[in-house]
Amino acid sequence: MRTLYDEALAEEDVIGLSIGTRPDCLAPETIALLKEYSQKYHVWLELGLQSVHDKTLQLINRGHNFQQFLDAVRACAGGSLNICVHIIIGLPGESDKDVLQTAQSIAALPINGIKIHSLLALEGTTLGEMYKKESIKLISKEKYVSLVADVLEILPSTMVIQRLTADGYRDIFLAPGWAMNKLDVLNSINKELERRDSYQGKHYR
After folding, report:
1. How many CB atoms lie within 10 A of CB 40?
2. Among 140, 75, 58, 69, which Cα is nearest to 105's?
3. Is the entire prediction scored with pTM above 0.85?
4. What pLDDT sits at residue 167?
């Protein structure tokens, strides 16, 4: 990996690295390497979590549990390496309370940034097939916007919000249709916060 990173950083207009991986795929030597680079460059480590609830992680076949995510975060924290977590709102079987528990758990950890996604049904995936068979119901835009606002109120104001809605996947996208209009979703989230007279970190403890 050092060779690949050095090759990328040799480019004049590259000022850092953003590395995405699973929390169960971080070897100690990889963490040490990223910490080394973070002493000189701006480095983000993106970890896919999606939910803190093991029952959900098992249902969506993540292949790791919440404890493995915690272990990865604690091993990477305490230095100049930036940690970004990915979560999904609207996962099968999750209640509003489950989503807020995920946000509260993340807010208590040494995490620098977050990417928030809605659940998408994509062609060629298990969830896509479940959607076609009508065995799962996807979240509505109104519910998603409301829950995102709830999550933002819980997260610390210092946490960088890198994404508020999913995008891409147009060639295999099935649903929900509202998720394809990213600007509309972002505007709706802003309007919901304005309606509440609220902001990121309002309920952070």
Report:
1. 10
2. 69
3. yes
4. 76
Structure confidence at residue 170 (pLDDT): 86
pLDDT of 168: 72
Cβ contact 148:119 at 8 Å:
no
Give the separation between CA 33 and CA 107, rounded to whole angstroms. 26
Which amino acid type is present at position 107? A
Identity of residue 198: S
Q: CA angle, corner 176, sides to 21 and 146, nearest 5?
A: 80
- The answer to whether 123 and 169 are in contact (CB under 8 A) is no
Measured between alpha carbons, how far is 41 from 43 in angstroms, rounded to an integer?
6
Lookup result for tokens 């999606």:
50
The pLDDT value recorded for residue 160 is 99
Report angle CA 111, 116, 120 to the nearest 5 degrees: 145
Domain boundaries, the chain: 2-196
Query: For residue 10, which phi and psi values (nearest 5 degrees)?
Result: -70, -20
CATH superfamily, domain 2-196, is: Aldolase class I (3.20.20.70)
Residues of the chain with pLDDT under 50: none
For 72, phi and psi rounded to 5 degrees? Answer: -65, -45
Q: Write the DSSP string, 41-91.
A: SEEEEEEEEE-S-HHHHHHTT-S--HHHHHHHHHHH-SSS-EEEEEEEES-
